[in-house]
């Protein structure tokens, strides 16, 4: 429908995402709106999210690639840099965006964020506090949430 | 081959004044992200991401792993100084709002080069007979016979001639070589200089256009190879500084100049200008990442961001970029101007 004027860049990125997906990441455009992607990221091994399948939504605004994509977790996740609405605190989604980055690089960065939570620059304050006060326990909670909410059902 | 185009170009461009401002050296590989510590309360504070994968084709094509063949440079040699290039557009009238960066149109040409010193291979090696003296060594390609002259603390004069500001330091000799690819050159024993007398500052700064090390490699083609008229010098000149590295001196090339039939060209490195075969060899995974504009992923790259010199845009997207962002897509350095490059091959 609204797909008639899709820029070549978005078509190319989509084709490449489908033909050569990054390991542990899948992204497929919605049929109604080719700027809207259903994304799945597997929890990285050695992280509290290992074994989890996390759903996200990604939207390419009109100004893309001059403006960053909008990305949000749909699956609940216990992470100091992801809040309960699924919003992600990631510099390349904000002021460090560059049009040379792509959907693929953004999703790889989010995957990396799962491997390296940073409670010093938190989005979810209480999670970050928990992380700093008792990391072992916070990691346990994150694992528990992964089992409960991200079991891939 | 090169003769006709050079002759034609001689009409287009004027020889340069003796001193020509050099381009700044290439920046280090881009830092991918920076700390930012301010946390505005209502919107979520920015989080410093774990290093995301580098922007496509940023690092892969910084340096060409395979030296170009001796007859063609893939970095464009720009005739210097630049008189207005033939295709230069008149400056657009001032627009309202902040002045946008302007796009400069440049003709890049492949110039036939007879001698090519591989600039990453220059070293200073101790002279076995006198370890305090250092001998200059490097790898080079030559399509004709020729000779090399090494100058220490040299200054450029008229017509790309060089002379040392310390003439007593050395007796100048022209060291002959024969044609051949990937040859090794080493200065003859005894002709090196003990650099221990010089301060590090003197060695590492091209102060007042004095370069601590200048290698003047000159083709001396025989008549059947095209070496004809009297004043047809064809030289590649490599200007370098010396930097201390683990108690040793390392050569760092600042620029290379081509002096061909009375025209001076300066190598301006544009990151991202690769030919397709090199791109294929260098990084097969990145398939066409090395050639397409990073914004539309469609058109060929023909516009470089200045001053960082990342050739990453097509001219259309460059126009968009200059109104929407002031940062280079590859390294995020501020954009001062955009330079459109048209690669024109020399006529046969
Ligand atoms: Zn483009
Ligand atoms: Zn740049």
TrEMBL record, chain A:
One GO MF term attached to the UniProt entry: ATP binding
SMART domains per UniProt: UBCc
Active site annotation, chain numbering: 89 (glycyl thioester intermediate)
A Pfam family hit: UQ_con
InterPro entries membership: UBC, UBQ-conjugating_AS, UBQ-conjugating_enzyme/RWD
Domain annotation UBC core: ranges: 5-151
Keywords: ATP-binding, Nucleotide-binding, Transferase, Ubl conjugation pathway
Source domain of life: Eukaryota
Similarity comment: family membership: Belongs to the ubiquitin-conjugating enzyme family.
Protein's job: Catalyzes the synthesis of non-canonical poly-ubiquitin chains that are linked through 'Lys-63'. This type of poly-ubiquitination does not lead to protein degradation by the proteasome. Mediates transcriptional activation of target genes. Required for postreplication repair of UV-damaged DNA and for adapting root developmental programs to suboptimal availability of iron.
Oligomeric and partner information: Interacts with yeast and human Mms2, with the RING domain of RGLG2 and with UEV1A, UEV1B, UEV1C and UEV1D.
Name the record gives this protein: UBC core domain-containing protein
UniProtKB/TrEMBL annotation, chain B:
Record Pfam families: RNF157-like_N, zf-C3HC4_3
Keyword flag Zinc: yes
Catalyzed reactions per annotation: S-ubiquitinyl-[E2 ubiquitin-conjugating enzyme]-L-cysteine + [acceptor protein]-L-lysine = [E2 ubiquitin-conjugating enzyme]-L-cysteine + N(6)-ubiquitinyl-[acceptor protein]-L-lysine
Gene Ontology biological process terms in this record: protein ubiquitination
RING-type domain ranges (all copies): 293-332
Highest taxon above the source species: Eukaryota
Residues passing through the membrane, by range: none
Stretches for region Disordered: 1-105
Basic residues: bias regions: 31-49
Composition bias, Pro residues: 14-30, 78-101
Name the UniProt record assigns to this protein: RING-type E3 ubiquitin transferase
């Amino acid at each position: 429908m609204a797909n008639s004027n899709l820029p070549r860049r978005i078509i190319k990125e989509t084709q490449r995402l489908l033909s050569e997906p990054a390991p542990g990441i899948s992204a497929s455009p919605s049929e109604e709106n080719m700027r809207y992607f259903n994304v799945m990221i597997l929890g990285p091994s050695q992280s509290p999210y290992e074994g989890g399948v996390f759903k996200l939504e990604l939207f390419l605004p009109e100004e893309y690639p001059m403006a960053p994509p909008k990305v949000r977790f749909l699956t609940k996740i216990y992470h100091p840099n992801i809040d309960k609405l699924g919003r992600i605190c990631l510099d390349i989604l904000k002021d460090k965006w560059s049009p040379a980055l792509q959907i693929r690089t953004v999703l790889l960065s989010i995957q990396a964020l799962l491997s390296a939570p940073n409670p010093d620059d938190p989005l979810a304050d209480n999670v970050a506090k928990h992380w700093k006060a008792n990391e072992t326990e916070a990691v346990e909670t994150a694992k528990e949430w992964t089992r409960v909410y991200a079991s891939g059902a | 081959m090169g003769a006709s185009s050079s002759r034609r170009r001689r009409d287009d461009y004027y020889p340069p004044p003796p001193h020509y401002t050099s381009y700044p050296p290439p920046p280090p590989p881009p830092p991918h992200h920076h700390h930012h510590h301010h946390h505005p309360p209502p919107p979520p504070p920015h989080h410093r991401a774990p290093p995301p994968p580098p922007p496509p084709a940023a690092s892969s094509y910084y340096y060409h792993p395979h030296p170009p063949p001796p007859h063609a440079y893939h970095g464009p040699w720009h005739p210097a100084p630049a008189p207005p290039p033939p295709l230069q557009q008149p400056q657009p009238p001032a627009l309202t709002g902040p002045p946008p960066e302007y796009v400069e149109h440049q003709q890049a040409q492949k110039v036939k080069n007879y001698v090519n010193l591989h600039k990453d291979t220059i070293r200073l090696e101790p002279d076995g007979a006198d370890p305090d003296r250092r001998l200059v060594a490097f790898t080079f390609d030559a399509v004709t016979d020729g000779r090399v002259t090494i100058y220490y603390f040299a200054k450029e004069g008229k017509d790309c001639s060089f002379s040392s500001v310390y003439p007593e330091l050395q007796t100048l000799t022209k060291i002959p070589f024969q044609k051949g690819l990937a040859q090794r050159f080493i200065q003859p024993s005894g002709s090196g200089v003990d650099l221990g007398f010089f301060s590090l500052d003197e060695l590492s700064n091209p102060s007042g256009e004095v370069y601590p090390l200048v290698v003047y490699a000159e083709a001396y083609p025989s008549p059947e190879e095209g070496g004809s008229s009297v004043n047809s010098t064809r030289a590649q000149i490599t200007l370098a500084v010396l930097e201390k590295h683990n108690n040793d001196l390392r050569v760092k090339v600042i620029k290379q100049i081509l002096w061909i039939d009375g025209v001076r060209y300066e190598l301006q490195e544009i990151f991202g200008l690769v030919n397709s075969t090199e791109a294929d060899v260098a990084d097969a995974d990145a398939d066409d990442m090395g050639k397409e504009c990073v914004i539309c992923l469609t058109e060929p790259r023909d516009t470089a961001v200045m001053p960082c010199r990342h050739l990453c845009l097509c001219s259309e997207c460059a126009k968009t970029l200059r109104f929407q962002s002031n940062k280079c897509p590859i390294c995020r350095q501020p954009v001062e101007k955009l330079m459109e490059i048209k690669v024109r091959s020399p006529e046969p």
